[in-house]
């Protein structure tokens, strides 16, 4: 098991918590078609927060549960910065958490 797994698992929980706190946690899943997007971050079918909830968090959970290799890099913060540039004053806590996630992924094993 990668030594970063416990830290990443904790970070994922913090990201979920922040989505809930900021009111961006959906109780109903987007359509199967929306979830099947092949565009990066599903920008054509989902809001960024939906992508985090319905694609990113579940995929990372599978990686951790199955002891699969972690991604070599993560650019989630850059996407969050682009999204929140359009919404001044929003998403600061989420961006901080995503920056920490990116740092954890970038660390050597």
TrEMBL record:
YqcC-like domain boundaries: 8-104
Transmembrane segments: none
Entry-linked Gene3D superfamilies: YqcC-like (1.20.1440.40)
Single GO BP term: single-species biofilm formation
InterPro entries found in the cross-reference section: UCP006257, YqcC-like_dom, YqcC-like_sf
PANTHER family: CYTOPLASMIC PROTEIN, CYTOPLASMIC PROTEIN-RELATED
Descriptive protein name: YqcC-like protein
Species annotation: Pseudomonas batumici
